[in-house]
Amino acid sequence: MRVTLKDIAEAAGVSIMTVSNVINGKRARVSAETVDRVRRIVAELGYVPNAPARSLAARSSLMIGLLVPAATEDSLAISPHNTAMLGHIERGLRRHGYHLLLRGVAERAEIAEALRSWSLDGALLLGFLDEEIDGLDKAVIGTTPVLAVDSYSTNPLTTGVRSDDFTGARLAAAHLLDLGHRDIVFAGPAFTDVGVVHERFLGFRAAFDDRGLSEMDCPIEIVNTTYDDGVGLARRLRSSHPGATAVFTTADILAIGLIDGLKDAGTAVPEDISVVGFDNIDVSAYITPKLTTIAQDIGGKAAVAVDRLLAKVTGQPSPDTPHVLPVQLVERASTTGPRDR
């Protein structure tokens, strides 16, 4: 049988209200002795709070949605970076007493459906294109607080948090240029004139400008950020870019696929081709050779996202400008100076 507040109150010899106050942390008017007695009985009886009842009492679902793009009905855009974000976000919400609902979204209308069907207190948007974020208004999201992660949209309803993508790519290109590379391929997904990949390309080009190399051509390879696409890029790299001595990829998982594909093709990394990634996911330190990459603070980004969203949810003041986290270059074994051809 389920243990109730009444059971605990009878065992402790106190009122149900006192038990409720102790369990919910409202202990200002409860003696330390009573608090200890109630907590001991709670543990002995194995009391588990009734989440629906607590939500009803608080007029809150205590649920936060994490909405991610779904390319098809049964496919979510969960990259290694987004997987890491998911773990950090869930832990942060759990510490504040909230539950996480992961939901794939294939069409914009599904955002409103998710927010209302599950009575979400708020939602984080992860991995959406900026033009999709731009199109969100109160007709879509209603009054539910929403925050975008890794977005350059100026939509005031979704002001969120992102890493310094421009500086990160600038550091990566500067590292390769300082090693002596000049024919460097930029590899990443298709991009428009706004967004994460666009910022990384601008930062990449800025490193050439810094060194008076503005006139140099920077070949671009449009590839999806997956391991398999990295392997595919490796297979055609020598024929498409015979003079290339280095590749900067916009994601570690793409760089890892590229490294494995190059090794299978008999191309040595970094002796023949240097490779730099972006993200610093855990596996980047375990592959051979270990990946030189741009580290972004994924845990910090998730923490800021959770704090900002919950501030909106609870009616606290929320900044109207995005929070930008710093990045840093992590030098490992996948880069070296170019050798004579």
Core attributes:
3 domains, alpha/beta, Rossmann fold, 13 strands, 341 residues, 434 Repressor (Amino-terminal Domain), six-stranded mixed beta sheet
Give a concise summary.
The chain is α/β, with parallel strands linked by helices and 341 residues long.
Strand order of the largest sheet: 8-7-9-10-11-13
Q: What sort of overall outline do the alpha carbons produce when their principal axes are compared? A: elongated
What name is given to the CATH topology of the largest domain? Rossmann fold
Assigned CATH architecture of the largest domain: 3-Layer(aba) Sandwich
In the CATH scheme, the class of the largest domain would be: Alpha Beta
Structural class computed from helices and strand pairing: alpha/beta
The residue fraction in helices comes out at: 40-55%
CATH homologous superfamily of the largest domain, by name? Response regulator
Q: How many strands?
A: 13
Summed up, the helix count is: 13
What is the fold's blueprint, element by element?
Layout: H1 5-12, H2 16-23, H3 32-45, H4 51-58, E1 63-72, E2 75-76, H5 80-95, E3 99-105, H6 109-117, E4 122-126, H7 130-134, H8 138-141, E5 146-149, E6 161-163, H9 165-178, E7 184-188, H10 196-210, E8 220-222, H11 227-240, E9 246-249, H12 252-264, E10 274-279, E11 292-296, H13 298-313, E12 323-325, E13 327-330
Parallel strand pairs: 1-3, 1-4, 4-5, 6-12, 7-8, 7-9, 9-10, 10-11
Antiparallel strand pairs: 1-2, 11-13
Helix pairs in contact: 1-2, 1-3, 5-13, 9-10, 11-12
